[in-house]
Amino acid sequence: MINLRNVSKVFNSKVKALDAVSLKIDKGDFVFIVGASGAGKSTLIKLMYKDETPSNGQVMVLGKDLSKLRRREIPYLRRRIGVVFQDFKLLEDKNAWENVSFALEVTGTPRREMQRRVNQGLALVGLQDRKEAFPGELSGGEQQRVAIARALVRNPDILLADEPSGNLDPKTSLEIFSLLERANMFGTTVVVATHAQDAVNLLRKRVVELKDGTIVRDERRGAYNY
């Protein structure tokens, strides 16, 4: 599903965010990317959906070499990848239902199919009773649930999450990770960059640790720290 080969990323010709990173993630994997702030976690996630391009090396996602993708091909790649952000990135002038449906509108999904899938997505995250609420009327945890429903509504092959619990309390954080785990159980490959030690230690998934832009640990059933 995802294969990085000797990937480096340098910003402003001097700041090295990643240094010769090689990483393979198979279909159905659930991978935590951990490490201190500035270790390169977010950069690694951004490379996987071509929000950044590597300075050196090769990034393969869903069988495609991202360096060879034409600009017009990028939206089609991203239709197969769901992304969840720390700051939710919801549209403030749209309610929960409309925020989720927007992900399908842009792909031309028929109205009846869109209604079925949006309702299903909101039910999955437990927000079917809050579908008419706007982001300002939702708690942080509820907003992140809407963001997860939006990411999953297109049935993506890969779900990428960059610090999805960064703005949430510990209890809500664990609930969010439980939703990501549930998506993985249905076959979605999940990659999460996080500082959430409790969640990583509880779920015992594959853990890849970054330090100063390099991978220093890759464990199949790992914890946040050694």
Residues in helix, %: 25-40%
What is the distance, rounded to the nearest whole angstrom, between the alpha carbons of the first and last residues?
27 Å
Q: For the largest sheet, list the strands in their spatial order.
A: 6-7-8-3-9-10
Order of helices and strands: EEEHEEHEHHHEHEHEE
The count of β-strands is 10
| Oligomeric category | single chain
Output the CATH class name of the largest domain: Alpha Beta
The main sheet comes to:
6 strands, mixed
Q: How big a fraction of the residues is strand? A: 25-35%
Number of domains: 2
CATH architecture of the largest domain: 3-Layer(aba) Sandwich
Instruction: Supply Rg.
Output: 17 Å
Ranges where pLDDT stays below 50 over 5 or more residues in a row are none
Helix and strand content put the structural class at alpha/beta
The name of the CATH topology of the largest domain is: Rossmann fold
According to CATH, the homologous superfamily of the largest domain is P-loop containing nucleotide triphosphate hydrolases
**Which word captures the global form?**
globular
Write down the overall mean pLDDT. Answer: 93
Counting DSSP H or I runs of 4 or more residues, the number of helices is: 7
In words, what does this structure look like?
The chain has two domains: 1-80 and 156-226, Rossmann fold (3-Layer(aba) Sandwich), CATH 3.40.50.300; 91-155, no CATH class. The protein has a six-stranded mixed beta sheet, sandwiched between helices. Strands 2-1-4-5 form a four-stranded antiparallel beta sheet, covered by helices on one side. The chain is 32% helix and 27% strand. The chain starts with a strand and ends in a 7-residue tail after the last strand. Helix 3 (96-105) runs parallel beside helix 5 (140-152) and helix 4 packs across helix 5 (140-152). A hairpin with a 2-residue loop joins strand 9 (206-211) and strand 10 (214-219). The protein contains seven helices and ten strands. By secondary structure, the protein is an alpha/beta fold.
